[in-house]
């Protein structure tokens, strides 16, 4: 018989079994693997200490950071040594400083910190990550020893703000044969029912002639506790939309859609997700075609209504590294005929268009910031289709987000590609630091750019099979800490397009306020 105590001198004794008391979170194989090397004849207290340390390390590596292992005072009989596991349960959980989010909801979404539980910190970190995805709330845990020995108390410190946001913007993103100005407004509330549900409503109109463009849209987003998202949206359009040439299209329609977003396992600096989507689209359009018949009392008309289902599967990535930030997206779009789509509607809309269409769309963007503060950004987007597509599914080039210097969606094609290279200056806010208003500058820089785009139209009788756009220019971006923003792009077009001739200059602008 050997006695083990804190002041035990170096003695040898046999250890044929470690009796581990107090464990509820680790499985037996993990415990046995940790302590087995320290069993045998003629062991010392140092061997027992190493076994204790090894077992505690297993708990730590498994993510149970509040667990400790000790060697209680004991007598070693028949080679049996006892180790005591103190699992550090949560004695008290408090939510501190929350103003716009209920305490019960925050507690319910962090079950690893529930009172009486032994926190598994990797899981707790995921729970906090899900909570902190909401831009209106940041939750930070603070741990301290509990009043009862071997327990912990946790404060969830909350910094939150009113989850209501709104924006208004005036720009000149107009398409051919329409008035120039567009007014956008939106409002969003991001904590409905205290469940982080989000409801957003948006409106776009052409203020100079509201009969030209009126688009209403709404989005509802439901986050799930596992990090997934479900989104439903609706778009209602009552617009006069001008097409290329002398053919004008007047249309009303709507889109109903749903998306399910599933984030995939994360790694350092690499985020990716899958998106599953379904849409129902219905458009009622009338084409007004010019006529040279002197007996005609007006233009010829052709009604081309269409309704159809479409599905999509997307994969998105966001990579952050020493080489900058890279974002990519690839989406497979398809419309299986089994969903009720009919070839007659599609063929009426466009010759040889098929109800069971299929095309691939992708885009990528990379931003690299040099040590000097200068930054270089490259963007590319493209679409590949095997058959003619109706206009609502075609790839467009021209406009602020594509090829600057041209009107929005100046050219459409079934397949196409666009690209842009942009060189940005360091922040210009430093140049105004001696002025009082410099404190209100959040982001300000200038840039120069080159844009290009090319689309291909399949089976387009009488039209060129390819259209190309090129431009170059300068730009300026300003965002303030109070919510005001302004974007300016001044570009020169390098070839002809609807309402644009080679060499023309165009100023694109966006000004607005968001809070």
Task: Please explain how this structure is put together.
The chain is mainly β and 515 residues long. Helices cover 10% and strands 51% of the residues. The longest helix is centred in the first third of the chain and has 17 residues, at 45-61. The termini are far apart. A hairpin with a 2-residue loop joins strand 19 (306-321) and strand 20 (324-334). It folds into 3 domains: 2-86, membrane protein fhac (Ubiquitin-like (UB roll)); 89-160, membrane protein fhac (Ubiquitin-like (UB roll)); 164-514, membrane protein fhac: a member of the omp85/tpsb transporter family (Porin), CATH 2.40.160. The protein has helices at 28-35, 45-61, 103-108, 121-131, 343-349, and strands at 2-4, 13-15, 17-21, 40-43, 68-70, 74-76, 80-86, 89-96, 137-145, 151-160, 164-171, 182-192, 197-205, 214-223, 229-242, 248-263, 270-289, 300-303, 306-321, 324-334, 358-369, 375-385, 395-397, 411-413, 415-424, 441-456, 466-480, 484-493, 505-514. Helix 1 (28-35) runs antiparallel to helix 2 (45-61). It contains 5 helices and 29 strands. The model is unreliable at 242-250 (pLDDT under 50). A 16-stranded antiparallel barrel has the order 11-12-13-14-15-16-17-19-20-21-22-25-26-27-28-29. Strands 3-7-5 form a 3-stranded mixed sheet, with helices on one face.
């Amino acid at each position: 018989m050997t006695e083990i105590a804190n002041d035990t001198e170096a003695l040898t004794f046999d250890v044929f079994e470690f009796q581990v008391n107090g464990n509820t979170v680790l499985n037996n194989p993990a415990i046995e693997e940790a302590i087995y090397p320290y069993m045998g004849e003629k062991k010392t207290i140092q061997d027992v200490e190493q076994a204790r340390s090894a077992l505690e390390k297993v708990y730590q590596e498994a993510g149970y950071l509040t667990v400790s292992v000790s060697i209680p005072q004991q007598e070693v009989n028949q080679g049996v040594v006892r180790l005591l596991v103190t699992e550090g349960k949560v004695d008290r959980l408090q939510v501190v400083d929350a103003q716009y989010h209920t305490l019960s909801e925050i507690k319910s979404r962090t079950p690893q910190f529930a009172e009486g539980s032994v926190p598994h910190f990797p899981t707790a970190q995921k729970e906090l990550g899900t909570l902190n995805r909401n831009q209106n709330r940041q939750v930070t845990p603070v741990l301290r020893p509990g009043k009862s020995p071997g327990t912990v108390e946790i404060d969830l410190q909350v910094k939150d703000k009113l989850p209501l946001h709104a924006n208004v913007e005036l720009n000149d993103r107009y398409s051919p044969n329409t008035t120039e100005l567009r007014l956008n407004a939106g409002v969003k509330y991001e904590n409905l029912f205290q469940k982080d549900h989000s409801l957003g409503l948006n409106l776009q109109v052409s203020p100079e002639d509201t009969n030209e463009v009126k688009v209403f849209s709404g989005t509802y987003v439901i986050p799930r506790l596992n990090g997934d998202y479900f989104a439903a949206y609706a778009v209602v359009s009552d617009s006069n939309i001008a097409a290329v040439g002398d053919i004008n299209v007047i249309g009303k329609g709507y889109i109903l859609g749903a998306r399910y977003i599933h984030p995939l396992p994360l790694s350092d600096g690499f985020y990716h997700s899958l998106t599953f989507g379904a849409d129902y689209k219905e458009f009622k359009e009338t084409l007004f075609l010019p006529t040279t018949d002197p007996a005609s009392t007006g233009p010829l008309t052709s009604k081309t209504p269409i309704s159809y289902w479409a599905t999509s599967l997307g994969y998105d990535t966001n990579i952050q590294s020493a080489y900058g930030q890279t974002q990519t997206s690839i989406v497979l779009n398809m419309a299986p005929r089994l969903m009720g789509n009919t070839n007659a509607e599609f063929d009426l809309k466009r010759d040889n268009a098929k109800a069971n269409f299929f095309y691939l769309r992708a885009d990528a963007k990379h931003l690299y910031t040099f040590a000097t503060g200068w930054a270089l950004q490259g963007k590319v987007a493209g679409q590949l289709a095997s058959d003619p597509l109706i206009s609502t599914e075609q790839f467009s080039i021209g406009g602020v987000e594509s090829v600057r210097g041209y009107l929005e969606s100046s050219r459409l094609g079934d397949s196409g590609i666009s690209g842009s290279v942009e060189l940005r200056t360091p922040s210009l806010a430093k140049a105004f630091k001696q002025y009082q208003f410099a404190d209100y500058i959040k982001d300000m820089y200038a840039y120069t750019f080159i844009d290009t785009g090319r689309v291909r139209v399949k089976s387009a009788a009488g039209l060129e099979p390819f259209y190309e756009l090129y431009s170059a220019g300068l730009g300026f971006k300003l965002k303030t800490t109070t919510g005001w923003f302004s974007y300016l792009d001044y570009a020169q077009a390098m070839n002809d397009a609807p309402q644009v001739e080679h060499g023309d200059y165009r100023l694109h602008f966006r000004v607005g306020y968001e809070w």
